[in-house]
Each structure stands twice: as C-alpha cells, then as structure tokens.
Amino acid sequence: MSNIFCFPAIAQKDARILILGSMPGEESLRLGQYYGHRRNSFWFIMGELFQFDPDVEYRQRVRKLQENHVALWDVMHTCVRQGSLDSAIRSDTIVANDFEGFFTSHPDIKTVFFNGRKAEQEYRKRVLPYLSHKYLQYHALPSTSPAMASLSRAQKLQRWSIIRKPLV
C-alpha cells in the first residue's frame, strides 16, 4: 500500500456550490477523472439535473458543471487505502485538503454537498473545526458509488436534486 492523492479541484471562480467526495477510487485514479467508474451514478445524476448527456467526453461534462456554478473536490488530499472502498482508508494516514485557501479563493460558494458519509465525517472531523468560513451550509447526500447499493439510481437522483436549489 502506498499513498494516493486526490485530483485538483474543479472550480471556476464563480462557483456557488461545492460537491465533496472522500478520495477517488482506483478506476477514477487510473482514468484521471472524477467519478470515472462506469457504474458510479454521479455523471448520470449530474446529466439529469443539468440537462447534458452523461456519456459525453469528460472535459465536456466538467464544463457543464462549471457552467452551472458547481465545483468538485475531495476532502482528503492524500491517504493510504487498499482498493477503492472508503472503509479501507487507513484513518491515521489521512491529510485533508486546504479548504481555508479554497474558500478564500472561491467566495461565492455558500453550500457544500457531501457525496457519501465518509466525506462528511472526515470533513467534520478534520476541516470544520479549523475553518474560519463558518457561514457555509452543509448537506449530506447518499454516495453515488456502486458500493451504495441500498438505493436505486432513481432514488439517488431524487435525493441529489436538492443541489439545484442554491443555484436557482
């Protein structure tokens, strides 16, 4: 096992919401793309919410999120994990991203959505107590990962539809 690192944030200066995952899975890391696993529901959900084909080329999907003032990042900058499951992350190896700097350079972000429980737990433990940007609103959403099999894709879409509210 060795350290794995997250991707850089995808965020325009005018982003208004931030979606946070925990750490990209093996397939995403291999492809160099957020939510790269074909069975992950993330791009399907974003396509439904922002009216674009989730199968278009990755750069076009990213551009659609940016056009809709959505930023993507991960709570963890680095960690040690074997496989792709959040439950395999070694807690003692987690280093969080620089959210103080991120929120300072993206002042229009007012709402943060967590893609899954691990992202929320680690953010609340490793970031929130040290953050001066206390005006943010937080919402936990079900993971879009195929490992979160207790909800159907349609049920996930219904719960994720809340992200459009801060953008209207």
Word description of this protein:
The chain contains six helices and seven strands. It has 168 residues and is an alpha/beta fold. The chain has a single domain, classed as Uracil-DNA glycosylase-like domain (Uracil-DNA Glycosylase, subunit E, 3-Layer(aba) Sandwich). The chain has a four-stranded parallel beta sheet with strand order 3-2-6-7. Helix 5 links the parallel strand 6 and strand 7.
What is the overall number of helices?
6
**Topology-level CATH name:** Uracil-DNA Glycosylase, subunit E
CATH class identity: Alpha Beta
State the helicity in percent bands. 25-40%
Largest sheet strand order? 3-2-6-7
- The assigned structural class equals alpha/beta
The biggest beta sheet is recorded as: 4 strands, parallel
Q: How many domain regions?
A: 1
Distance separating the two termini? 44 Å
- Helices and strands, in order, run as EEHHHEEEHEHEH
What is the molecular shape?
globular
Content of β-strand: 15-25%
Gyration radius, rounded:
15 Å
How does CATH name the architecture?
3-Layer(aba) Sandwich
Question: What layout of secondary structure does this protein have?
Answer:
Layout: E1 3-5, E2 17-21, H1 26-31, H2 42-50, H3 58-67, E3 70-74, E4 76-80, E5 95-96, H4 99-105, E6 111-115, H5 117-126, E7 137-141, H6 153-160
Helix pairs in contact: 2-6
